[in-house]
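Possible regression after last week's pipeline update?

I re-ran a chain I had predicted before the update to compare outputs. Posting the input and the new output here so someone can diff against the archived version. Not blocking, just want to make sure nothing changed silently.
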Amino acid sequence: MAEVPEFGAMLASLLGRREVRVRDVAASARLNADGIRAVLSGESPSTELVRRLASALGFHAVDLLILAGLEVPSDLEPLDPAAELWVPRIVTEAVHLKAAGRGEVLHLVRSLPQEERTGVFVPQRLHPLSSAPGNRIIRMLRYRNLSWSGLAKTMAVLTPTYLAASTFGRIGADRKELTPRLVIDFSALLGIEAGELAAMTGVVLPGIPPPPPPEAQDAAALLWEARRLSAEQAEYVAALARSMRGDSRNGYTLNLPGS
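New output (post-update):
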């Protein structure tokens, strides 16, 4: 099985793809350029450095921390693990709406008041952090309140990937290969450009895939924003999205370009 590149190599690949200079990233991240060069040379990054780099490079800090092999601080955890029951329903109902409807659901998710955290986020069925690229990606999606079952349902609607829930567990446990097709489809849910996700996980794509359709882009935004919802709030949003569909019960697969 493949392994995720060391963070320095990962960062070098990303900067090379974007044709960005170290000093420019350092200025944007408010970091010392020599500190970034040390990481590029193989020094282990600190959590603070990765968080600042994530902001400068347009990544969610959670994702870059996981890709770097670091633990996610508690302040970056989803609010309520129980919301995992409703988050996939929010997405799979909302993507059947027209653009204006999807925008309305996203606006609602962002506008709901932030509730107090009542417990510790302990994502179940999350394998110990390893250097396997599948492990890192499944972990990133778990931090979006997607269980194996929720991931299977969401992927089946949004992408050409139709797999049993247990198969996603095997990917996370490094018992199933992370294929180029999976990287492309996972990238759609994560809101990360497929070529960059492939480079950072050590997977080689056969070509440059086109960007995901607007429905998938909106789904990625919904998944991220829904991290701040309680289970009760998520249930409310899911019911509203369902009601906005009216009598239509026709499901479909978006068939991302390149499938």
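Follow-up from reviewer: compared with the archived run. Residues 78-259 form one domain. Marking as no regression found.
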